[in-house]
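To make this tangible, we now present a fold written out as tokens:
***
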Amino acid sequence: MSKVGSIPAVPDSSSAPSGQPFPPIGASTSQRTTRGTAIAIALPVLCVVAIVATYLAAPADAPGAPQEHYLIFWATIVALVAGLSSTAIGVYGGVLVPGLLVLRGPGAIDPAFIAAMSVFVQVVVIPIGAGTHYRLGNFSRKLAMPLIVGGMIGSFIGPLVGGYVLSNKVLGKPDLAHIVAVVIIAVGVLVLATLRLGNLGTVRDENDVPAVRVGGIGLVAGFATGISGAGWGPIGVKMLILSRFDPRKAIGSSLVARVFMASAAVVAYVIAATAFKGIQPDWWLVIPILAGSVAPMIPGALVVTRIGREKATVAITFLSIGLAAWSLTQ
């Protein structure tokens, strides 16, 4: 007798009534595999075409003008690393933002533009990585829901607070980035110390999700992302790991929640647009960053399914600490 709630077996085509055959299981799986392979190949190719076209269309470098060709090339490299790390270890803005700030040198790029572009790009690129993780099973609905609620609230408040602080000169743009960097480093050191002491040796049961704590993590990480463009991965994912959630579920669930978080941040940036009139945009970087981020999304999701829990934890922590420290030195 089958248990209540068990999944019924899929009928075999050989036992189907004559004239009403079931579709062969192998054919369906083969079709899905072929489709997935085609997308995995076509997507990076299209991204490369978009990047090359932008590079060719960009104005020639001139003395005293922004070195657009140089910036497009290196911004693409930064975006590739950010896209790969997003699906592999859950960090996107923590790679993109400091990487672009360092790329153009101290004070040469507007941090407010980078912050705004980071959340706008995430709305487009993150669903690809999130969908891949969802299909791979690296997702927990109970974990994602409080993250979504807390993340949306925090990311909506962040740009509004940032606009007020900057427009009233309470803090300068570099000061906001430095504060977030210090928080990222502090959380990373805490995670490494806890891992060293062995307190992360056991994974929390998937049904044991303290909603208030997880919502608070989403609130803090969402606020950091909304105000600076970085923080959801370095702060949010690491805090989830510190709470003994499986890194693969933490990464996958946080990516799904990040889509909603970034959408809320975009709405807040639109509302706070009058507070950011002084932004100096570099539109030639948008397409390379967008395309460069999308290209490695699917491979990155496959990477995380093949690495161990402690390796994922150490990778997330050292990468985010290194980039945060790098941005502080600049």
